[in-house]
Amino acid sequence: MGTRGLVLYLLSGFSVAVLSVLFFSDVNDYKLYQNNLSSSNSTLLHSSAYGSSTDTTWPELEFSWKLVLATVIGFLGSACGTVGGVGGGGIFVPMLTLIVGFDTKSAAALSKCMIMGASASSVWYNLRVPHPTKEVPIIDYDLALLFQPMLMLGITIGVSLSVVFPYWLITVLIIILFLGTSSRSFFKALEMWKEETILKKEMAKRQETLVNSRGELLIDTEYEPLEPREEKSKIQILRFNLRWKWLSVLVLVWVCFLALQIIKNDVEVCSALYWVLFCLQLPIALVVFGYESVKLYKEHKKRMSTGNTQSICEASIGWTAMHIAFCSLSGILGGTVGGLLGSGGGFILGPLLLEIGVIPQVASATATFVMMFSSSLSVVEFYLLKRFPIPYALYLTFVSILAGFWGQFLIRKLITILRRASIIVFILSGVIFASALTMGVIGIETSIEMIRNHEFMGFLGFCSSQ
Fold it and tell me: What is the secondary structure of 406-418 as a DSSP string?
């Protein structure tokens, strides 16, 4: 499945799913829903929105088999999720609801804590790792500036849509999206595996030509370079990977979005001030995205005019208006999925970075870097709204921090030994597919229960559903 095929699959699938809501809508059921709004909302994914009315259930933090199992799943999910650059929210939310016993609203908030912890430790690890092929930072700040504002804007849209969209529709959209992106990532990993195999065979043949039948070296190719490459310490690599100018812009965008969200939470829903604050997020995102887009477009045009085919950033695509528009829509889509799921949006960003030609190591580092901002934004807001128990949040965050660090360490060691970066892409595909299974099975089960109870299955009113 190529890029165009994936886009066509997603567009057609989403269109059919959204239009099918019209066949399930019933005016009488909607009136019944309005009369029993406070007691009829028991869905999983709606509870990940900020306005859920689900009753709060916070189990005590005590040693039990449930805690041990949740710790193991959380550790493995965080380790694999951060290596793949997708976070793992699609695994954490079902784990916290089905095994530990949290209500889904609190589970979504705790999953953000886990994503934030794993992302932060992965970013710290990656900042102390050099780029595998170039003398540039391991994190692509140009791509981070391009995607971060659109991702945050998409998260806001996703949270709003989770209130309006019927539960079964969100389940169907998630299954369509996750199956498409996991399949595309899997085939991408297979292509990379084949290329790596060919490259290893060529390197083996070159080694054979340098050795005779008795194993004697015919040509000594181990020359000392004229200018030996300086080995950098961890501190030097850290300083080199940090770009304070770009980092300050990302932090500024984060602070602006956080301030708007905090103020908006204290304003009456659907009031004039509420919509003003909601719309203010759009110019903030567009200013940063527009600046970075114009910069990439002009640089690409300049290089093409001089015959320079070198990539501007880690992405190998040409920064035309069409490609920039595609990246902006993908960023918004990734954030929207994050808002619907209570995840960090990496389920779109990770595969997207690979699709535009970013090598797996840089794609993983950049995706987790962007997710650190989006997830921490939600964690601060959830903390101020008292949406999760502090002891569990600290414990699960600590587990995720350890998992993120050791996951990066072990996988990078494995890549160095096997010389196969495609391992990262296989892990990414596996995490997305596992999320599709867990969220899909639970979603279908809950949707069937809603149908049996004759609950309203159409679009809900945004203002009346808060």
Answer: HHHHHHHHHHHHH
What single letter denotes the amino acid at residue 369?
A: F
147-190 pLDDT, tens digit per residue, is: 888 888 888 887 777 777 777 777 787 888 888 888 888 888 88
Over its C-alpha atoms, the chain yields an Rg (Å, rounded) of: 24
* Integer Cα distance of 215 and 208 in angstroms: 9
> Are the CB atoms for 115 and 400 separated by under 8 Å?
yes
Residue position matching structure tokens 């009829």: 40
- Asked if 256 and 282 count as a contact pair (C-beta separation under 8 A), the reply is no
Q: Are 216 and 45 in contact (CB under 8 A)?
A: no
Q: Rounded distance, CA 230 to CA 91, Å?
A: 43
Maximum alpha-carbon separation in the chain: 88
Structure tokens at 353: 């970075």
Tokens of 105: 């609203």
Give the end-to-end CA distance of the chain in Å, rounded to a whole number: 40
What are the C-alpha distances in Å from 224 to residues 77, 173, 219?
Answer: 44, 57, 15
Residue with tokens 């501007």: 312
How far apart are alpha carbons 314 and 132 in whole angstroms?
Answer: 12
The three-class DSSP label of residue 211 is strand
CB atoms within 10 A of CB 123: 23
pLDDT digits (tens, 9 = 90+) for 86-145: 777 778 888 888 888 887 778 878 888 888 888 899 888 888 888 877 788 888 888 888
The residues, any chain, with a CB within 8 Å of residue 93's CB and separated by 6 or more, are 44, 48, 104, 107, 108, 111, 341, 342, 343, 439
Residues in the chain: 466
For the beta carbon of residue 180, count every other beta carbon within 10 angstroms: 20
- Phi/psi for 276 (5° steps) reads -65, -45
Cross-strand pairs, 211:
217
User: Is the entire prediction scored with pTM above 0.85?
Assistant: no
Buried b (16+ CB within 10 A) or exposed e, 240-268: bbeeeebeebbeebbebbbebbeebeeee
The Cα–Cα gap between 406 and 439 comes to: 26
Measured CA to CA, the distance from residue 323 to residue 316 in angstroms comes to: 11
Residue with the two structure tokens 């290089």:
303
